[in-house]
Amino acid sequence: MFKDSFKYYKSRNPPPDLKDVVDFSIPDLNKVRIITTQCVENQQGDKLGLKPIKEWRVYELIDVPGLIFIENPFTEIGQQYWILKCLKDYSKKPNKLNLDIHNVLNDNESWWDITFGNPEKGKNLLSKLRWTTLGYHHNWDTKKYSEDLKTQMPLEIVKLMDILADAIGFQGFKAEAAIINYYRMNSTLAGHTDHSEINIDAPLFSISFGQTAIFLIGGLTQEEPAVAMYLRSGDIVVMSEGSRLRYHGVPKILPTIIKPWETNNASESNTSISKNVDHWKKAKMYISEARINMNIRQVLKSGQMTLY
Ligand SMILES: O=C(O)CCC(=O)C(=O)O
Ligand SMILES: [Fe+2]
């Protein structure tokens, strides 16, 4: 049962045995299948912080057809770029934040500015950011998207998704909604399915940064057992086809030793991405005790212009 696996991996006392957690960095070919990428190098990829596509390692989980895993395809600078985007830009109005209902931020205040610029008010705010929504906003109560609640999808996310989708054979994917999830070391995400999108034939992309997650993917009902896997910084999970509507969740965040965002010489790098060293220092501090997940979906069927 999904709940049993969740409880097992969440437990602190006793701590879980991690021997069955699928580790794509040492792929077991009894459990995973190698997928070949459609290697049309895209010049934009470099600007979006991606390694050349020919260097990517892509797998499918044999027991969960359609569950595709791309092992961190980001460069170190790329990791910094996306972490900063999630912390500084995507957590701003007009996007929606979990903090909105608490009225802790005034309209002209941003989470980033207050957290790192106002020691008194910022102290409590750092750990309170839990999610933000972009594009079509998911309404957590009705579990529906609405045409009225819609903001512009950031162009860099749209472009990134075009490249990722093309590389693994999902041409035509349109990034129309995103949830950015922010996890502290003791955060969890309960088992759920993502079924609110009209177009459930389109894959869902889930990109992780920062500390490592144990991610569980179960079956179409809660009764089926779950497979556990590590999601490390930069790793991408694609829930497509038979895996798209399966139960999944995050029972545990583990501190990571491998920090692909942390370079010795990134601050000397000449790309515009790491230009703001001061901002990066703050983001680096945040990410040393946090995980960020960018969860990106297509909502509409191709050719459909609005929800109605
Ligand atoms: O954080 C994750 O890896 C999963 C997030 C997720 O499932 C969701 O946002 O629907
Ligand atoms: Fe989900």
UniProtKB/TrEMBL annotation:
SUPFAM superfamilies: Clavaminate synthase-like
Binding site for Fe cation: H192, D194, H248
Family matches, as InterPro entries: Alkb, AlkB-like, AlkB-like_sf, Oxoglu/Fe-dep_dioxygenase_dom
Top-level taxon in the UniProt lineage: Eukaryota
Ranges annotated as spanning the membrane: none
Cofactor: Fe(2+)
Domain Fe2OG dioxygenase intervals: 174-300
The protein, known as: Nucleic acid dioxygenase ALKBH1
Source species: Cephus cinctus (Wheat stem sawfly)
